[in-house]
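sorry to bug you again but im stuck and you know this stuff better than me. below you get a single protein, a line of residues and a line of whole numbers that encode the local backbone shape. mainly i need to know what kind of three dimensional shape the backbone takes. anything you notice is useful, everything is just below:

***
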Amino acid sequence: MTRAKRSLSQNFLVDHNIRRKIVAELDADPSDGVLEVGPGHGELSDLLAGEVASLVLVEKDDRLASDLRDRFRGRDDVRVVHADALEVDLAGLLPADRPGKLISNLPYGITTPLIFRFLSMSPLPARMVLLVQKEVAARIAAGEGNKVYGALSVGVQARAAVRVAFGVGRQAFRPVPAVDSAVIVVDPYAGRTSQETLDDLRSLTRVAFSRRRKQLGRILRSAPEYDLPLDDVNRILSECGLSPRARPETLTPAQFVELAVCLGEARKDRARPLHD
């Protein structure tokens, strides 16, 4: 087995039962195209190859990519792409003529940017099964009112249904990491939220959760990013059915999206030039 590179946050999954459980959560059938990001030694790839219509493996590590090419040499249904998943066109690697799904044992160091890159794919995968750090899984799947509910929770749940499938102990990996992991299942919603709305949502959640103990009315009046007059704040919150006294952790992802849209419209109105 190729030694893990600390610089790439590599931890290889060695527990066969956990591997099977992860693949089962993908619920892939013979007509699916599957994209696996960070296949490592092919721990999950071996279970998928031959069971799906096509399997594309995206591996950044030079040695592992070479090993994977040797392992699957001569197979028309398996393709190894030696590339950085943060840079390559992921959607372009999936067949356009069949449903696509994604599976990944995510490197801890770049979990969040990779998840949002996956959620930016067009078309979106029908399902994503991701192995992540346990604490990150809890934050992603947290509901409003939970103490770990925050910008990450809203950012993902505004675009997809999320559930934690099961936990994975640290002893399932080599080398053994310092933390436990969990598998999350991410089912993107049909239709796409505009990039403008996503940008507005990102701005709002960053502002709101950096001041999570304050009330929404005060946040929108005092945050430099908004600095809205009291009348505008009350009008916008009323339009969204929200109280100025509400705190950020009480809003659902859908309410955050609606508020972000209203604030974006208000910003456009203020920027629009006046005509005589």
About this structure: Residues 195-271 form a domain with the Helicase, Ruva Protein; domain 3 fold (CATH 1.10.8.100).
